[in-house]
Amino acid sequence: MSKDITNQEIPADYQGQLLYGNYSQHLRCRVFELFNTLHKVESVDPPVIPYLAAWNEMEEKIIWYEFSGKKLLALLNCTPDKAAERFRKAVVDRRIYCYNDLDHKIKEEITLSSDLEGQCQGLREEVKMTGCVDAIYQLSINDRLFWVKDQARIEIFSHDHICLSLGFLTDMTKEMEQKTLVEKIGYFDELTSLPRRLIMDRIFEINIGLYTRGRIDDFVFMMIDIDYFKKVNDTFGHLAGDYILAALADLMSSSKRKEDEIGRYGGEEFFCFSLGSIDNGLVFAERLRKKVEQHTFVFEGNRIAITISVGVVAATQFNDQEISAEKMVECADRSLYKVKQSGRNSVMLFQRM
C-alpha cells in the first residue's frame, strides 16, 4: 500500500489509536492492512479468536487493541475500549510449556497474576527478542474460569516506538479442565484425599518464588509423623490403621487456615505449609499436636489414642542462595528425627549449627 491513510478511509468500526495518531505512513498502512485482513478472517467464523494488540515502548504499562473482534468482546463481555484492561484484570495466571534441557520432559511454568503485574516490561522485552508469543492464560470472567491459548507474532516499528502483536486466541477450556482432572487423580491421595508430594513440590516452587521476590515475608514447612503407628496396625489391624490416617487427615484439615496446606508425604508422614512468621507456624504446629493428643479415635468400638511429632523449618532460616525445597524438607525431617529421639509428641524448630 503506497499512499497514506486518510480519515475518510478508516473503517467505521475501528476502535484503535494508531490510524488517528501522528505515526509513520509505514506503520499506519500496516495497521490498516492487518485490520482489514482480520475482519475478513473473522467473517468466515474461524475456531480461533483473532486480535491485533499494540503498545508504546516508551509507556511500559499501556497496551491496547487495534482490532478486537466480536468473539473476543463476547468472551470478555465488554466494549472495545475496555478490552485490554478487562483481559489484564481477568488473568489468573500465565502458563508456558517448554522442554526441560536436562531430561527433555515438558515443563510447566506458571506465573500468577500478581507477579505478572511486576513483570510487564520484562515480558515485553522477551517477546520482542523472540518475535512471538506462545502461552496459555487462565481467565476469571463473571466468576467463571476460561483457558485461552495465545499465539502471536510481534512486529516492531522502531521509528514510532510501537510494537504490534498479531495473534489468535484458542479456547482451551475443555483441554485444561481435562488436564486438571488427570492431575487431581495423580496429585491427591485416595485414602486421605490430601495432596501428595507432587503438590508439595508445586507449593514449594510457588512459595519460594514469592519469598525470594519479597512478595511474602516468610513461610513455615512442617513434617508430621504419627507416633508408634506400627503398634496401631499390629494391635487393631491395617483397616484400623487406614481409618486413623483418614480420620487424622480430616482432623488436621479442620484445624488449618485458608492459607495453610496439609498433605500426605507417604506412609504415616504428613507435610504442612503455613504462611507467616516462625512464631505463627509454631503456634499452628502446637495447635495441631494438642488437638490430636486430645482426640479419641474410635474404630469398630475400639478407642484408639494417638499422638504426633512435628519438625518445623522456616524460609527465613535460609538465605536466597541456599533455600530450596530439598533443603527445607531435609531440615524439617532432621528436626522430626530429634523429636522422635527425645520422646515424641512434641514440636521442634530446626536449629542451625
Structure write-up:
The structure is a single chain. With 353 residues, the protein is an alpha+beta fold. It has eleven helices and 14 strands. Helix 8 crosses helix 9. The longest helix is centred in the first third of the chain and has 19 residues. The chain starts with 24 loop residues before the first helix and ends with a strand.
Element layout with pairings:
Layout: H1 25-43, E1 49-56, E2 63-68, H2 70-76, H3 83-90, E3 91-99, E4 106-112, H4 113-117, H5 120-130, E5 132-141, E6 144-157, E7 162-171, H6 173-187, H7 197-212, E8 219-226, H8 229-236, H9 238-253, E9 261-266, E10 269-275, H10 278-294, E11 297-299, E12 302-304, E13 308-314, H11 325-341, E14 347-349
Core attributes:
353 residues, alpha+beta, seven-stranded antiparallel beta sheet, 29% strand
Mean pLDDT: 90
Biggest sheet record: 7 strands, antiparallel
**What amount of the residues lies in strands?**
25-35%
Q: Helical percent range?
A: 25-40%
- Gross morphology: elongated
Low-confidence stretches: none
What is the chain-wise order of helices and strands? HEEHHEEHHEEEHHEHHEEHEEEHE
Cα distance spanning the termini: 73 Å
Content-based structural category: alpha+beta
- Radius of gyration, whole Å: 27 Å
Number of E-type strands: 14
> What count of helical segments does DSSP give?
11
